[in-house]
Amino acid sequence: MYKVYFKQALHILKQDRLISAISIIGTALAITMIMLVYMVQEVKTANVLPEIHRDRSMYLNMMDIKYNTGGRWRAMLKYEALKECLLPLKTPENISATVMLTDAVVNMEGSAERNTYQLRQTDDNFWKIYSFPFTEGKAFTKEDFDSGIPVVVISQKIAKEIFKGQQAVGKTIDINFIPYKVLGVVKNISMLCRYSFADLWIPYTSVPSYTNSMYNFVALAKHKNDFDAIKEEVLVNQKKYNAIDTTRVLDLNGPYTVSQMLLDIYSSEDAANEIKANTRRNILILVIALIIPAINLSSFSLSRIRKRMSEIGVRKAFGANKFSLIGQVLYENMITSLIGGALGFILSFIAVVSLRDLLLSDSLSVLQSGEFGLSMSAFFSLSVFLAVFLACIALNVLSASIPAFRASRLPIVNALKS
Amino acid sequence: MQIISLENISKVYSTKEIETLALENVNLEVNKGDFLSVMGPSGCGKSTMLNIMGLLDIPTGGRVNINRVDTTNMKDKAMAEFRNKTLGFVFQSFHLVNSLNVLDNVELPLLYRKMSGSERTRRAKEVLEKVGLVHRTKHFPSQLSGGQCQRVAIARALVGNPEIILADEPTGNLDSKMGAEIMDLLFQLNNEGATIVMVTHDEHIAKKTKCIVRFFDGRRVQ
Predict the structure, then answer these.
(1) How does DSSP assign A356-396, residue by residue?
(2) Contact list, A313 vs chain B (CB under 8 Å)
(3) Measured by CB atoms within 10 angstroms of the end CB, which terminus of chain B is less buried, N or C?
(4) What does the alpha-carbon distance between residue B185 and residue B147 come to, in Å, rounded to a whole number?
(5) For residue B89, what are the contacts with CB-CB under 8 A and spacing of at least 6?
(6) Low pLDDT (below 70) residues in chain A
C-alpha cells in the first residue's frame, strides 16, 4: 500500500512543480530555522572536544559570604574556599581548578615583538578532565604542578605566530615577562568551550600570587547520578569550614551542571524556575517556528486535496475508511516534509559554515576576541539528526492534519461530483 | 434469490431556503444474476437511487438490504469494508486516478484489504487481461482513449470480485462503437454471474438487459 502511495506522491510532486517547489522550500526554511536554534543551544551543552564530559561535569565559580555584622557579598571563588571545601572532594572521579581567564603579554625569549594572548592558569588534572588534541609534546604533570615550575602548553595559533612554523616544544617564551618552557602544542580550541578555552595554559602554582586569584572549579562525576552526592560533600566541607571562623558564613550553593551555568544560575532556589522558564522560551520559539510554515503548508496541502476530491470519492467508494485516508494524506505530506527536511539539513549546514560566528556571537562570556574554531562535527551529532527528523514529523502533522481530516469527512457523492 | 432490496427509500436534499425531494418511497428488489437497467429523464432520481444502493449516499428514510444485510446503522469503517467486498462501481466519467498508472488504478480496491503486493498485482493483471488491456499496465489515464479508460474502470470494479456491479451511465461519455464494446463486456460479466444495476438514458441498450425499471420525479413508475 505505502509503495503505491509513495509512487503517487512522487508523481503528484512532479506534476505540480511550482506548488511542490514552494512546499519543499517552505519546509526546508522552517527546518533550517529550527536546526539553527537547536544547534546553537546544543553546541553550548553537548559533549564537544575538548569538553567531552560536559554531561558528567559540575562547575562552580561564585561564592556568597555573609558576615555576622550584617554584610553579605557575592564574589568569585577564592583560593581559600577552593582549598578548604572543593579540592578535598572524594566523590568525583576527578577535580580541577583554574584561575579566571586573563590577558597575558607574550613574546619569544629575547624578542621585542610582544602580543597579547589569553592565559589560563590551571592544574595537572585539567588535562585529564578535558581531552586536548596535542600536535606536539605533552601536558604538564603533577610533579610540574606541585613544584610550580614555569612550563606552558600553547595553542597552534601561538606556535604559528611566535615560532613561525618551527618546532615549539623545548623553546622558551616570556609570559608577562617571566620565561616559560614550552612543553606541548594543542590544536586551537573554540571559545565556546568556556571552561577550557585559552591560548596558553600554565600551572597556577607557577605564579607566586596564585593564592590571591579567583578560580573556576570543575568536578567530573563518575556518573550523572552522583551530582547530588557531590553537592552533599561540598555542603559537609562547607560546614567544617564555617565552623573554623564563626564570624562569617560561606555559602557555595553549588556546584552546577553545564545547563545551569549557561543560564547563570547561582542559587538552587532559582535553578528550577530558571530552567523551566528557559525551556518554555525554547519551546515557544520552536512552536512559532513550526506553526507559521505549517499554516502555509497546510493551505498548499488543502489546495492539493481540493484538486483530488474525485480521487478521495473513488477511494472511499472502493473501501477506504477515514483512517486510511488520513494516513494516506499524512504519508504523502511526510514525503514532502522529508525532502524539505533533507534540503533544510543541507541549508542549515551551509548556514552554519557561513554564519557560524554571527550565530554564536551572543554565546561569548569570555573575552571578545579569538576564533570559534569549533569543528562541524560538534554541530552535526545524532541528536541534531533526531531533532530534524522530529521537526519533520511535527511539521507534517501540523500541516497535513487539517486537510487530512477534511478529506476524511467529505461525503462520497460530493467528492465524486467535484 | 434476492440480493438487493430497497424498502421505502426517500431522499430529501435540504438547504436553508428549500427542500428538494429526490426520491419518494422507492421500493426495489434485485435478484442475484440480474442485469437491471434504471431509466428516466434527467433529475428523476435514478443516480441518487444508485448511490444509495451502493452505500455512497445515505437515504433520508427507508432501509437498504444487500445480501440480506441491513446497512441502515452501519458505521463508517464497517460500511467501507462492506462496499469493498460486495460492490463494484463504474462511473460515467470513469473517475480514474490520474496520478496512478493503469495497474495501480486497478489495484486500488485491493489496497484496503489484507493482501500482499504480489497477489494484488496478479489479480489486477488477471482482470486487465479480461478487459483486454494487460499490455497497458504502465500507461497513465491521460494516455488512454475514453473506451480504454472505461475498461480500466470496469477492471477496477471487478478486481475485488464483488457480487454486485453498479454502473452509472457507463457508456454516457463514449461514442457508439466504444459504448457497444463496453456493453458487450458488461453482458459477458453478467453471463459469468455478476449482478449488474445500470443507470442509462439509452433505450436501445436498456432493452438488451434482463429487466428495466423507470423513474419519474423521484418515484418508481415501472
Answers:
(1) HHHHHGGG--S-S-S-----HHHHS-HHHHHHHHHHHHHHH
(2) 95
(3) N
(4) 11
(5) A317, A318, B54, B56, B157, B165, B166, B167, B168
(6) 263-272, 274-275, 356-381
For residues A47 and A55, what is the distance between their CA atoms, to the nearest angstrom?
Answer: 7
What is the per-residue pLDDT for A369? 42
Q: What are phi and psi of B55, to 5 degrees?
A: 60, 25
Residue carrying C-alpha cell 496541502? A301
Q: Tell which residue, B102, B31, B87, has the closest CA to residue B57.
A: B87
Rounded to the nearest angstrom, the gap between the alpha carbon of residue A406 and the centroid of all alpha carbons in its chain is: 42
As for the ipTM of the complex, it is 0.92
**C-alpha grid cell, residue A407:** 478529506
The pLDDT of residue A14: 83
Instruction: Report the residue of B101, B111, B154 to disrupt the A interface, i.e. the one with the largest count of A CBs within 10 Å.
Output: B111
When CB atoms are compared, the residue of A3, A12, A416 closest to B95 is: A416
Cell of A302: 488543502
Cα(A263)–Cα(B106) distance, integer angstroms: 61
CATH architecture, range B2-220: 3-Layer(aba) Sandwich (3.40)
Give the model confidence (pLDDT) of A78-127 as tens digits: 999 999 999 999 999 999 999 988 999 998 877 778 889 999 999 999 99
Q: Which of residues 311-370 of A touch B (CB under 8 A)?
A: 311, 313-324
Per-residue pLDDT tens for A162-199? 888 788 899 999 999 899 999 999 988 877 788 899 99
DSSP A333: H
- Chain B neighbors of A316, CB-CB under 8 A: 56, 80
User: What pLDDT is stored for residue B131 in this prediction?
Assistant: 85
**Within an 8 Å CB–CB cutoff, is residue B115 touching chain A?**
no
DSSP result, A135-150:
EEE----HHHHHHT--
Residue of A nearest to B84 (CA): A319
Q: C-alpha grid cell for residue B198?
A: 445500470
- SS3 at position B108: helix
Nearest-by-Cβ selection for A319 from B80, B95, B100: B80
Identity at A304, one-letter amino acid code:
R
Q: Which residue has the cell 602548553?
A: A153
Of B96, B107, B113, the CB nearest to A4: B107
Task: Locate B144 and state its grid cell.
Answer: 488512454
**Are A375 and A49 contacting, i.e. CB atoms less than 8 angstroms apart?**
yes
For the stretch A24-56, pLDDT in tens is: 888 888 888 877 777 777 777 878 888 888 889
Instruction: Show me where the domains of chain B are located.
Output: 2-220
Tally DSSP H helices, then E strands, for chain B: 7, 10
The SS3 call for residue A68 is coil
Q: Is A3 on the interface with B (CB under 8 A)?
A: yes
Task: Please check the confidence at residue B83 and state whether its pLDDT lies above 50.
Answer: yes
The ranges assigned to domains in chain A are 2-49+271-417, 102-201
- CB proximity B141 to A under 8 Å: no
Q: Is the pTM of this model over 0.90?
A: no
